[in-house]
Design a protein that fits this description.
This protein has 9 helices and 10 strands. It has helices spanning 42-49, 72-77, 95-102, 109-122, 124-128, 139-150, 169-184, 196-201, 220-234, and strands at 3-11, 17-26, 31-35, 57-62, 65-66, 80-83, 157-161, 188-192, 205-210, 213-219. It has a domain at 3-86 and 156-234: P-loop containing nucleotide triphosphate hydrolases (Rossmann fold). It binds adenosine-5'-triphosphate.
């Protein structure tokens, strides 16, 4: 069933709504990409889904159950994790300590250890570097650490805000290879990224937003054909 956003109106103040009746479905086990010009409301949508902003109107559900009013820990318990925009690695803390932060809702030492083992199995390069300060990792590795940290609580749904921002092209490719692996593992993934071509390349379904409204939507193939035309509308 995945994630469903229906007729959502939300913003940072009551007077100025940023999302104006948005609708979106992120199907289970699929990659859904949101594109749009700067200020279209893409990040605001992810913040609203994750409960940081309270919608004035509309509904948001996950696997058919309303998640409106949930705190981040409730989201994690329901299997939804969120990569916020910008850098969120703590550079002076060890790689392992950064990962442990991702498991903050796990109750026992045993659960935390098992989660770490699972993540290390999936990300052997992080295991090799677990005793290093995270700030020593390359930009791409830090982003992969952030993504790995998201998986500590065993989520099924990932919200990723600008996973490739600020990375040079080679590292963008590395990060997208990691996201492609998560796609193969059937995570439900909702991505916002300025790198439209890269994000669409792994998408199953794409939404283009403008001014907090739905502007276009369709499959990757439909978008690939119309991409130049759609991007021209933003300029
Ligand atoms: N914390 C905030 N307080 C008030 N207004 C905000 C805040 N964050 C964003 N906005 C406004 O909300 C609107 C949408 O911003 P948002 O960051 O969601 O856009 P976006 O589509 O993600 O753009 P970008 O690609 O530039 O990140 C913008 O007009 C922005 O100025």
């Amino acid at each position: 069933m995945g994630l469903e956003v229906s007729d959502v109106v939300a913003g940072y103040t009551r007077e100025v709504p940023i999302l104006n009746g948005l609708n979106l479905t992120a199907e289970d086990g699929r990659v859904t990409v949101i594109i749009g010009p700067n200020g279209a409301g893409k990040s605001t949508l992810l913040k609203t889904i994750y409960g940081y902003l309270k919608p004035e109107r509309g509904s948001i559900s996950h696997d058919g159950e309303s998640i409106l009013g949930y705190a981040p820990k409730d989201m994690l318990r329901k299997g939804i994790a969120y990569l916020i925009q910008g850098h969120s690695v703590f550079p002076r803390m060890l790689v392992e300590e950064n990962l442990e932060l991702g498991g903050w809702i796990l109750g026992s030492e045993r659960e935390r250890r098992e989660a770490l083992e699972r993540v290390y199995e999936r990300y052997p390069r992080l295991k090799e570097k677990r005793r290093l300060p995270a700030g020593i990792l390359s930009g791409g590795e830090q982003r992969i650490l952030e993504i790995a940290r998201l998986t500590m609580t065993g989520p099924r749904t990932l919200l990723l805000d600008e996973p490739s921002v600020g990375l040079m092209p080679k590292l963008v490719t590395e990060v997208y290879e990691e996201i492609s692996k998560l796609k193969e593992e059937k995570y439900t993934i909702l991505i916002v990224d300025q790198n439209v071509k890269k994000s669409i390349s792994i998408a199953d379904y794409v939404y283009a937003l403008a001014l907090g409204e739905n502007r276009h939507e369709g499959t990757k193939e439909e978008f690939a054909e119309r991409l130049d035309e759609i991007v021209k509308e933003w300029i």
